[in-house]
Write a structure and sequence with these properties.
homodimer; alpha/beta; seven-stranded mixed beta sheet; six-stranded mixed beta sheet; 13 helices; 13 strands; globular
Amino acid sequence: MRCKPVNLILVGYGNVGRAFFRLQLEKRLLARRRYGLDIGVFAVVEVDGVVASKKFLDETSLPPGPASDLERSPLWKKNLPLDALFRAKEPGVLIECTPTNLRTGEPALTHIRTALDSGWHVATANKGPLVVDFAGLRQKAKENRVALKFGGAAAAALPTLDVGLYSLAGAEVKSIEGILNGTANHILTRMGEGMSYQEALRDAQSKGIAEHDPSLDVEGWDTAAKLLLIANAVMGSSFTLQEMKVKGIAGLTPRIVQKSAGEGKALKLLGQASREEARFKAQVSPVALDRDHPLFGVSGTNKGITFFTDTMGPVTVTGGKSDPRGAAAALFKDIINIFRPA
Amino acid sequence: MRCKPVNLILVGYGNVGRAFFRLQLEKRLLARRRYGLDIGVFAVVEVDGVVASKKFLDETSLPPGPASDLERSPLWKKNLPLDALFRAKEPGVLIECTPTNLRTGEPALTHIRTALDSGWHVATANKGPLVVDFAGLRQKAKENRVALKFGGAAAAALPTLDVGLYSLAGAEVKSIEGILNGTANHILTRMGEGMSYQEALRDAQSKGIAEHDPSLDVEGWDTAAKLLLIANAVMGSSFTLQEMKVKGIAGLTPRIVQKSAGEGKALKLLGQASREEARFKAQVSPVALDRDHPLFGVSGTNKGITFFTDTMGPVTVTGGKSDPRGAAAALFKDIINIFRPA
């Protein structure tokens, strides 16, 4: 079978970027066989330079270490502008994996705008640029007739957007409820078992689940950012972070968590978006879920989302790896879905 | 906006067919606005005749009653062959809603083969033809470069196939576990509350959940048929019903169900398909699920499925209406996804 070549530029070589580079090498043969796509990375972009080649990069093209080792590669070029890469190849997909900034969206925002204007599709694991300029980026993608995919940004391998946009096509999503942050959910689960907030947080940090600065996770802003992307994409809302009421779990006592459990409920950090006529509402807060709520059993680092629809009833998705490999797999999925036939 | 016309032929005007006809009328404006598709039915086909028009049929085109009333329509034509309809219009989608026959697949099998050979796409709510000739129909669709969609047959509004094929693109599905029959699950849930099998069955029948002849549901064959479709589509297996080990719930006593509950487990009628190297295995049987199994909480008439993957971990979908309107919504979704841009 003659395969369609799909050129990738990978921007950002942190944990997710490295996991993505490895995963697309592992999956190259599968993509050729199952989807007829010859997918490969020809450039890896970091802050001060680029590893680039005319052919797809392979295991031997990159030093085994982190981003700071890239400059040891014989293919390293200092300060090569992204524009030059966009012109170097038949347009494919920009894979955006730089660190998230929920305030400015940069540097990803500029990368994505330039890619779309250059006729390149985009798949991003970084939610910053979409939180900052959701409508603008979608409009730009539409004008340039290219795809802007962000499944990897919305909840890694949990397929929130695919289900909302594809599986529920033709239905009206009246409301969305989601447990979208694995760190906060892990902490609440541990508190339900009797730990204090501080103990549960330290437990999560010692296991690599929570970051050294866990504020985005425990104060609810990571949940809010994901909810914003999903609601805006699926419900057609135009939320900004500023408009959302966000309350995290930092002030909670084990007593409150255990009180819910004693009543047969489960306390969860829940993102909720809903529509009444043309009015949209969105908030993030701890909510005690009844036993028959479809997200009741989502515990530990697991995540889940329920779409309440007019014609299909409630549809819930749970699970999906939250680690860098899960995010990488979501990016790879988005690439396949840009190019596969219907 | 200029919309793309999508011509539909609806075959079978039973509960699902009627629900589909109503739903596509309700959703016509939404399909135009949101997807740029002008979707409409121009022919409704029943055993001994057809209601057909040059334009899309509307509320006033069909008598309000069941299939037997269709012949009262002024647009009724007796014994019009399906071929004539395929030639009458720009090819669109055949919507197959005739009664299911898991042994012969007919009459749907002939309808679908003819449609595919005439260059028409197919969306079916009837699993019979796919259970009987999965590989042959897929091959025929491929040769004719048309889509063969069967989301409505695999589990109505529960998006099993979309998730398996679209959301998990690029991942290897190593195994599938599913609670795929709402009637059996309802009966088991009631037995867990203390009813005998016979009491629970009568309860389901009195609520319209179980049919007068519930054998396909309680003996596991409905679950097996759905599992066959999903596994063959998503895992690339080629199961036939004959190869599957199928055990239903008819012989179970409340004691067995309650024993599971006493051990903190939940007894479910589970379809399981897995792959070890190139060997596939599939079976249907009552299984006691641990509390941390993602399908543990799926009770009553609810359904759910878990895909265990290499790169994305386990991904679970639950919920989705099981009634004729849910199946109709799944058919409508499949139509949109045939024609929408990526």
